[in-house]
Write a structure and sequence with these properties.
The complex is a heterodimer.
Chain A: H1 2-18, E1 39-49, E2 56-62, E3 68-74, H2 78-83, E4 96-103, E5 110-117
Parallel strand pairs in A: 3-5
Antiparallel strand pairs in A: 1-2, 1-4, 2-3, 4-5
Chain B: H1 12-25, E1 45-47, H2 62-69, H3 77-98, H4 116-120, E2 125-129, E3 133-138, E4 143-147, E5 166-172, E6 175-181, H5 201-206, E7 216-225, E8 228-236, E9 245-253, E10 273-274, E11 277-278
Classes of the chains: A alpha+beta, B alpha+beta.
């Protein structure tokens, strides 16, 4: 399993590299995420930032003291998200969602999006549709 | 034209000779095909197995990816040893990255080009067919030009290796036969280093320096049903390969979107390096 995870990590890093940049000072990586951990966050969408090269969900999550922390959740690019059904309006401010992420290595409040449950209680899109001809 | 597939009894030299003979004698020296004879491959296409999910990763294991890729380059012993050594070095580096060490060394840049984006593209593309040229246009705005007007390859004196090489083609019925030479650093730099960022996916990791810039690529692309294109590629590189290397890719129509969406590879700095480590830098609100 560990070997598989490492291989998946290699792929993720590599794909991120491909989608990232020409040789310019723009940096893109998933190396800062702890691929061995999965954290579930329940919170309220503050903003859904539909931008290249990566889309972000800004999520307000209550901490142990009851105050809200703002988490930055990184996704892939708009070009990839639309191909699996996401739209700029898939999430809206105020939506209550639950998402699974790989957290940051350094405990900064951020992570890599894995999967989620939308405000309607249905799984958020993210799994590619099966091959099908139109 | 059916390209010969080498068997264990096939001598590499003979296979190469047969392949080159087939290419050389193909009926492509005449005028461009009439536009009414050409197929319609309009729409957006994506590589089966290369469809990303919302995480930025792929929807299948690397074992599946490798199987899909038909990954079995017939390297000669010298190249195999060199490649094995470079891959071992890369594995060590990646293992460190996976442990959270030296993350800033994980990704530097990406290099697009051929044949990676045809074999392993996570980007969607369109195929624009005209009588004299077919253009394969990727969402990153890279365009592969395949000239089908009967011209030969660019003369040697006017040719130098480039990321997409020099492609000419001709139509055999509804099949586009493409011939490509002069590809710069196919599958990444010949001495490794930054291979992970070569063009994406595991192929970028496994293909360090396996081909030379003298490699020749012959492709046969056709529509196998309204929802799928097939690309059969044969790579000929006697300097590194003991036999022609055959691969096949299937592309399927993109389901959820019916237009090209820009993949901004020059993008903003979302993961700046601070104190030697990657960090997150969300974009400002667009509201």
């Amino acid at each position: 399993m560990r070997r598989l995870l490492n291989r998946v990590l290699i792929a993720v890093i590599a794909v991120t590299a491909l989608l990232s940049a020409h040789p310019v000072p723009a940096h893109h990586s998933f190396a800062m995420f702890d691929q061995s951990k999965v954290v579930t966050l329940q919170g309220t969408v503050k903003d859904f930032r539909w931008t290249n090269p990566h889309v972000f969900i800004q999520l307000l999550v209550k901490n142990d003291s009851g105050a809200e922390d703002e988490w930055s959740i990184e996704m892939t690019s708009p070009e990839h998200l639309v191909r699996v059904g996401w739209k700029p309006g898939t999430l809206k401010p105020g939506d209550k969602i639950s998402i699974n992420i790989h957290p940051m290595h350094d405990n900064v409040k951020g992570g890599q999006y894995l999967s989620g449950i939308g405000p309607d209680g249905q799984p958020l899109i993210g799994t590619p549709v099966p091959s099908q001809a139109k | 034209m059916n390209l010969p597939r080498p068997t264990r009894k096939t001598k590499p030299g003979l296979a190469v000779a047969l392949l080159l003979l087939c290419v050389a004698t193909a009926p492509h020296a005449g005028a461009a095909t009439e536009s009414t004879d050409l197929p319609d491959w309009s729409g957006q296409w994506e590589n089966v197995g290369g469809t990303p999910d919302a995480t930025g990763g792929f929807n299948q294991s690397l074992e599946q990816v490798l199987k899909t890729m038909e990954w079995s380059p017939p390297l000669n012993p010298t190249t195999r040893a060199k490649v094995d050594a470079m891959q071992a070095k890369e594995r060590e580096r990646l293992a460190a990255v996976a442990r959270g060490e030296n993350p800033a060394d994980a990704v530097v840049a990406c290099t697009f080009g051929y044949p990676g984006l045809m074999l392993d593209t996570p980007l969607m593309f369109e195929v624009l067919i005209t009588p004299k040229e077919t253009a394969i246009i990727f969402s990153s705005r890279e365009i592969r030009h395949v000239y089908t007007d009967g011209r030969p390859h660019t003369p040697k004196d006017d040719l130098w290796p480039t990321p997409w090489g020099d492609s000419i083609g001709h139509w055999e019925g509804q099949t586009l036969v493409m011939d490509t030479i002069a590809v710069k650093d196919p599958f990444g730099p010949p001495d490794g280093g930054g291979a992970v960022s070569a063009f994406g996916d595991v192929e970028g990791f496994l293909t360090i320096g396996i081909l030379t810039q003298q490699a020749r690529y012959v492709e046969r692309m056709r529509m196998i049903d309204p929802g799928h294109l097939e690309d059969q590629m044969t790579i000929i590189d006697p300097a590194h390969l003991t036999a022609p290397w055959h691969m096949k890719r299937i592309y399927e129509r993109v389901v959820h979107v019916h237009r090209m969406v820009y993949e901004d590879c020059e993008g903003e700095d979302r993961n700046p390096i601070v104190n030697g480590k990657f960090t997150l830098a969300p974009p400002p609100s667009s509201k």
